[in-house]
Specification:
- This protein is α/β, with parallel strands linked by helices.
- It has 10 helices and 10 strands.
- The longest helix is centred in the C-terminal third of the chain and has 18 residues, at 183-200.
- 43% of the residues are buried.
Length: 266
């Protein structure tokens, strides 16, 4: 993908943690276009979650560039980073929906949290926005006053997605969004994310160790091995003709036909 077509452009990104011995991320290059779903796949410890958290500014890079909407964001200082977060243009969906939702805060207030932080809306307006977001992810507005512990795991993950959608982001970072769910809910959430992308044009970086879930979902796949992107390309090409030995090993472990598709179940 040409640089001028990229919503997100990462070049030569390095991340090193004290005492780690070597970099967790080593020279990562990645582009994400407007309205594109890019899956970052690799085994546990390959650096996938660190990459997502570094894009969001939750982890500091030790070198390289992250350009979002044409602006360098890797080197933003605290105040500028806070302004970027308040805009809501980038949102993160965490891996564990139960741990990422405050158990003492209702679904309505959880979803509308970003609007409350941004300011300029009253409580009634925020509740209405939360209701619209809840409906957009296929949930009944009757859940608005429930606590996270009173809804199912699949519903909690949809609430987490609704919370991320409220500020109308340009980019969603989804960190293992279905790993804690059973097969039925996993398929439904992936189909939901794809439908939301089609409806809103939101770009997505989906972090996953599960290459088997990517056919019919991701537009492109980036394979991360020991902190380095070893292969990137359209999903069909990655499945049909993988070029790197590590990619071939992942595909052998996945053992899923390329034609697999997911159907949204409301």
């Amino acid at each position: 993908m040409a640089d001028n077509a990229s919503l997100l452009r990462i070049r030569d990104l390095h991340v090193a943690f004290p005492g780690a011995g070597r970099g967790v991320l080593r020279g990562v290059d990645l582009d994400v276009g407007a309205g594109e779903i890019v899956a970052v796949v690799g085994e546990t410890g390959s650096g996938k979650t660190t990459l997502g958290r570094t894009i969001m500014g939750l982890v500091s890079s030790s070198g390289g560039s992250i350009v979002f909407e044409g602006a360098e964001i890797a080197s933003l200082r605290r105040r500028a980073r806070r302004r970027l977060r308040r805009r809501g243009a980038m949102q993160l969906i965490f891996q564990d929906p139960l741990r990422s939702l405050d158990p003492t805060v209702t679904v309505a207030d959880t979803i509308a949290e970003s609007l409350a932080i941004r300011g300029g809306t009253n409580r009634a307006e925020r509740r209405a926005a939360a209701a619209r977001a809840l409906e957009s992810v296929g949930l009944d507005v009757g859940l608005l006053d429930r606590l996270p512990g009173r809804i199912s795991g699949g519903q909690r993950q949809r609430v987490a997605i609704a919370r991320a959608l409220v500020p109308e982001p340009k980019l969603l970072i989804c960190d293992e969004p279905v790993s804690a769910l059973d097969a039925t809910n996993r398929a439904a959430i992936l189909a939901l994310l794809r439908r939301l992308r089609d409806e809103t044009g939101t770009s997505m970086v989906v972090i996953s160790h599960d290459l088997a879930s990517m056919p019919g979902f991701a537009d492109r796949i980036a394979v991360l091995c020991e902190g380095t992107v070893v292969e990137v390309g359209p999903t069909r090409e990655i499945f049909a003709e993988p070029k790197h030995p590590y990619t071939r090993l992942l595909l052998e472990a996945a053992s899923v036909p390329q034609s697999q598709e997911y159907t949204y179940v409301p």
